[in-house]
Write a structure and sequence with these properties.
Rossmann fold, UDP-N-acetylmuramoyl-L-alanine:D-glutamate ligase, 2 domains, 7-stranded parallel sheet, 21 helices, 19 strands
């Protein structure tokens, strides 16, 4: 499924109206009908249910007026609170406001403080509260009575249902300036909006339902929409099929360059993850003084000592060894726990420029690219970079907050500019490709916020490339498997999840993808 920006959904609606002749008021009618169906699903029989609808003057409010009419017709006790004056309502919203007024449904204007007694009473004695204040076109910060309503909605212990998008959530970034409705359920139309998938907006949306309001399907699958959700169906179609006569040599060979003094755990996690994700052979290249430790620590992984510039620190002397090993392997993953010695940084950049195999670049190898991202366009294959928000901020010269405020835009632009596949890790990990296509992963959980889970992801992606997936496919499949493994582990609780737990869950995650229809 695709997801859209506010501008894209406006364009889709407009094309449905102009190119297909669907009246805008019909779309509003369909939207209201769908919301009522979902309210009935959530609340049960609507007869005698008390519902308070908080509406604005725009089309979101218009949807709310349609909802009020159909709820009333099903026997619900409906009150509509219009935040502002009826005189400011226009267009399709006005048509539906007039209809419910003719029907005798209570429409109470909330324009001054004296109106708040009615609001408070309604909120106290209601079964369900509907947010129809502002929709996807809203930007900025709610103020005045709008903000007051939202604060009240968030304090009362009632079921809150948002129409299209919780009011106060930015439809494009998921950011909140001031206050926003904390909904239990959001009924959105046609396609998910970016702000419903990105945090913090995702935490305000509650359970999200995508309702069909009659927009022609061709508009919803338009290739010009460059945002997609990673689904099990997509991943299953890409997953490598394993023939019964395979052997370790035909299941892919992974070379991992990782680890330094005090950071051998990162190397071990990456290597073991590659094994568990199905690689036939995994080789770890590590500074020679750490080799004996890793040889004892890793049972299923071969180890190769590399020349070092200081105790436990790989240096430029390792470049020729790594290039030679790369020739015998299918993929090179570089960076986890390598350290930031100046000689190591120089070696990393030289390896990235000259190794002719696909690359997965993580952790300290990303640090080596600060100020040197131009070399990514010189790689022999499209590299995969796996930064978290802090690493991305350093690469693009922004703060972490600036990155998180517009994750999709920044990740997409970096992928285009660097000619690379960028995986921006975090809650709702993003995968961006050089052609501007972006995917979002919606599995995974807060228990994965622990050291080493990023190293696991690097190993998984490397193993998938080694097994024959393209770097593009491996990025999507790897991110999804990683999140699914986290969800499997979290069935026993999210607190105390360790990165090594994810590694153990990888085979089950893979099996689940292969078996699920």
């Amino acid at each position: 499924m695709k997801f859209v920006t506010s501008a894209e959904i406006r364009s889709i609606d407009q094309r449905a109206i102009e190119e297909y002749g669907i009246p805008s008021v019909a779309l509003m009618e369909n939207a209201g009908n769908e919301v009522v169906s979902q309210i009935e699903r959530i609340m049960g029989n609507l007869y005698n249910k008390r519902v308070s609808i908080f509406a604005g003057k725009g089309n979101n409010g218009g949807d709310g007026y349609v909802v009020a009419r159909h709820l009333y017709n099903q026997g619900a006790k409906v009150k509509v609170f219009l935040i502002g004056n009826k005189a400011n309502v226009t267009g399709d919203a006005l048509i539906n406001l007039q209809i419910i007024s003719y029907m005798g449904i209570d429409v109470i204007e909330v324009a001054n403080e004296s109106d708040w007694d009615k609001v408070k009473i309604a909120m106290t004695f209601t079964d369900c509260l509907v947010d129809a204040l502002v929709g996807t076109g809203f930007t900025g910060q709610l103020s005045g009575h709008m903000a007051q309503v939202v604060e009240s909605l968030n304090k009362i212990n009632k079921v809150v249902i948002a129409i299209d998008l919780p009011s106060g959530v930015d439809a494009d970034t998921g950011q909140i300036s001031g206050v926003a409705v904390k909904a239990d359920h959001t009924i959105t139309f046609s396609l998910p909006k970016q702000g419903l998938l990105l945090y913090p907006g995702a935490s305000y949306a509650g359970d999200v339902t995508v309702a069909d309001i009659g927009i022609p399907r061709t508009l919803l699958i338009d290739e010009k929409i460059k945002q997609n959700i990673i689904t099990n169906t997509i991943v299953k179609s890409m997953f490598p099929k394993r023939n019964p006569d395979v052997h370790k040599g035909s299941c892919g060979k992974v070379l991992i360059v990782a680890g330094s003094k005090g950071m051998t755990g990162a190397a071990a996690l990456t290597s073991n993850a590659a094994v568990r994700a199905g690689a036939g052979l995994v080789v770890l290249g590590i500074a020679e003084s750490l080799h004996d430790i890793m040889e004892a620590k890793l049972t299923e992984v071969m180890t190769k000592p590399l020349p070092e510039v200081a105790a436990g620190i790989m240096g430029q002397g390792a470049i020729s060894d790594i290039k030679e090993m790369a020739l015998r392997n299918d993929i090179v993953a570089i960076g986890p726990g390598l350290g930031r010695h100046v000689d190591t940084m120089t070696a990393i950049r030289q390896i990235i420029k000259t190794v002719e195999k696909p690359l997965v670049i993580d952790a300290d190898a990303l640090y080596a690219l600060i100020g040197h991202t131009d070399i990514l366009t010189e790689t022999k294959a499209v590299p995969v970079l796996t930064p978290h928000s802090g690493e991305m901020a350093r690469l693009v010269g922004l703060t972490v907050d600036e990155v998180n405020q517009d994750r999709i835009y920044i990740t997409r632009q970096a992928a285009i500019e660097w000619g690379s596949i960028i995986i921006l890790k975090g809650a709702r990990t993003l995968v961006a490709f050089p052609d501007g296509e972006v995917y979002i992963n919606i599995n995974g959980n807060a228990g994965m916020a622990t050291g080493g889970t990023g190293d696991v992801l690097t190993g998984v992606i490397a193993a998938l490339i080694a097994q024959g997936l393209s770097s593009h496919e491996a990025a999507l499949v790897g991110v999804y498997i990683h999140g699914l493994a986290g969800d499997i582990v979290a069935r026993n609780g999210m607190i105390g999840v360790a990165a090594s737990d994810l590694i153990q869950a990888l085979p089950a995650a893979i099996f689940g993808i292969q078996e699920k229809d």
